[in-house]
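Figure S7 source data.
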Amino acid sequence: MGNNRDIIILGIESSCDDTSAAITRNNLMLSNEVSGQTVHIAYGGVVPELASRAHQQNIIPVVDLAIKNAGIYLDEISAVAFTRGPGLLGSLLVGTSFAKGFALAKNIPLIEVNHLQGHVLAHFLKEPSVEKKTPKFPFLCLLVSGGNSQIIVVRDHLDMEIIGQTIDDAAGEAFDKCAKVMGLPYPGGPLIDKLAKEGDAKAFKFAKPRIPGLDYSFSGLKTSFLYFIRDRMAENQNFIEENKADICASLQYTIIEVLMAKVKQAAKETGIRTIAVSGGVSANSGLRKALLDAAEKYNWEVHIPAFKFTTDNAAMIAITGYYKYLKGEFASQDAVPYSRVSLK
Ligand code: KG4
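Tokens for the predicted KG4 complex:
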């Protein structure tokens, strides 16, 4: 195995509806176990109370599996890193409490991690026998998920600044809420992506928001989509069924146009040409293509994560914990979770 200067981190992620535990040795991922929660499907979205109950059930088996699959001994763990926020408070409390108890029991340091920082630093995770280039500082990171839409300037592993963010819904929410209007199951983002592949992106036009600066807004698009569907269904009850692929392709095209416009503006304003993307929506095939096209057109270096690192995972928390460990940034036992978006 490793030598005794290796830093082995147990990472814990429980900010939303995935319970995850991971082990890293320095910047190498040894295991990354995720237990999703199907209980929310019936409700068309995450129900916070149910999410925290499921985390309670999942946390010990997931941690146990992560340690076993990493092939390490419990006593080799140097520190435990946990997501302190932003996220759902009840969910965060489960991971936070577990991490505190673990750190106390094993007498090892506790490290608090900001979930957004974790998504960005997922780009620095190495996997055994996978060759991957890591982004050079400074770079811009477009963080797009079910709860977040931010443009972040990343100057160093732990030096980041949000320069643009949504003033209302996140990009993933726009996908999911519009999917719900169409009667598609939750989460609708991946389904829209799949259906869009067969459709014409120019078939329908949706209004794009006009928000100053680098901020985003998706609530207007969601409302205009709702009215569009309502009006067309009034004329033809089979409208969704007959045009599903075209509707999905046009909606996806609009969301990507909105996202990309601000990334281009951010690149222009900052002069930064290394662009990374993170978060659940970074799995979207249209967005990936748009970024690669822009890379060619504007001479950007684009970094797209492996699919397993797009959604919430503890490996990204563990790698952030590693960089904080190197700087001696440890948390105290009275650290409490926070729900609001920040980069603290
Ligand atoms: O990062 P994530 O797993 O967790 C949250 O922040 O909730 O992101 C989940 C979001 C959901 O809104 C989901 O619909 C969206 O990511 N998503 C996608 C795709 N895959 C996941 N959206 C569009 N296209 C996809 N392929």
